[in-house]
Amino acid sequence: MQSFLQNSFPGASFESEKGTTPLSTLKKRDAALSGALGLTTCLKPEAALMLELYEAGKEGRAVTVSVLGLTGGIAPTTTLRYLEALQKKGAVRRIAHKTDHRMTYVELTESAQAAMDAAFGG
């Protein structure tokens, strides 16, 4: 697969760097492949949203529903559709802003966080 990618997309880097985390390696590879194909991301929307929420949680950032999709280049309607599906599966939860009821935050549930930690060694 590595040689196919390098032959198909000359100049794009698909190599892992020493000392990088699995999450950063995944994001770099997605960026390289997406860039080579002229796309925003090659990840499925639900995976892109979960990765963004995972990273935000690790950094202690609160993420609003409206900003979440924009960060990953995902259309707002697509973001809402996949957030609804992820919420039904118990992977994310929405939290209303304490004073501004127009804003809603979204975060991973404890079980989703644990699964992501297991997958990415976090």
Automatic annotation (TrEMBL):
Transmembrane segments: none annotated. It comes from the Bacteria. InterPro entries: WH-like_DNA-bd_sf, WH_DNA-bd_sf. Residues 1-21 are annotated as: Disordered. This is HTH marR-type domain-containing protein. Residues 1-10 have a biased composition (Polar residues). Signal peptide: none annotated. It comes from Erythrobacter longus.
